[in-house]
Amino acid sequence: MIRRAIFAAIIVVSSVSVFAQIPRFRIREEIARDHFKKGLSFHNAQQYVAAREFFYKALDIYPFFHLARRYLGDSYYYSGDWNGALEQWEFLDNLSDGAYPLVRQRSELLRFSLNEYRNPGDYVFLRSFYRTTWRGYEMDRPVDAVSDESGNMFLLSYRSANILEVNSAGTLVREINGSIFNRMKGPLSIAYYREKLYVADFLSDRVRMYTTTGSSMGSFGGSGNEEGFF
Parallel, antiparallel, or unpaired: how do β-strands 162-166 and 172-176 relate? Predict the structure, then answer.
């Protein structure tokens, strides 16, 4: 009986030690996500130094958190530390094996401009757009922009959750924000491909698709851990 009791105790202790070694991935994911969301709030408020702190906290938990790494680089860039931005973007490019062509393009352009042995040529200021440039249309917290083959620009704004199409002359063409029952909530980035726009809507965990004329082509994703969700 004594031997059985000792054997049973060993099994219990061994089981406890094994379970104690299993990391709590789900809780750590939520903590990293909360740090990232706080960093993003500071980033969108143009408080880039504070944003960097929270992006670093998220990366301390998950070093392979690609989006946190990308926005850490962005925060360095917008706060004037170009070398810091280049370091983070190139690290992400190597880490993801080139999965983010826009990040690679930014890195190459930045490295070119930082190279003292080359002259990138003269830059000519063209124009600026502001929140109040177009009466009746919001452009609050612009976060990304793309252009098509005709020189039309599509300006994406986070807080006003819309896309403003501007032609090459700087005239507003249209506003795109989705249908009444399926509007964007908090978009972060936009891509253009073959006369279609693809928007990463961060606050709704969805990717939304539009034609360049403003028609919604649907969306996919959603909040969750199941297949097909973000």
Answer: antiparallel
User: In this structure, what token pair is assigned to residue 100?
Assistant: 């983010």
Element (H, E) at 156: strand 153-157
Per-residue pLDDT of the chain (230 residues; tens, 9 = 90+): 544 444 444 344 444 444 444 445 577 888 999 999 999 999 988 899 999 999 999 999 988 899 999 999 999 998 989 999 999 999 999 988 888 888 888 888 888 777 765 565 676 677 888 888 898 898 999 999 999 999 899 999 999 999 999 998 889 999 998 877 788 999 999 999 989 999 999 999 999 999 999 999 999 999 888 888 88
The whole-angstrom separation of Cα 25 and Cα 78 is 32
pTM recorded for the entire structure: 0.56
H/E element holding 108? Answer: helix 101-114
Q: Rounded to the nearest 5 degrees, what angle is found at the Cα of 209, between the Cα atoms of 208 and 214? A: 115
- Residue 197: its H or E element: strand 196-201
How far is Cα 33 from Cα 25, in angstroms, rounded to an integer? Answer: 12
Cβ neighbours for 89, distance < 8 A, ≥ 6 positions apart: 70, 73, 103, 104, 106, 107, 110
- Cβ burial, residue 213 (10 Å; 0-12/13-18/19+): exposed
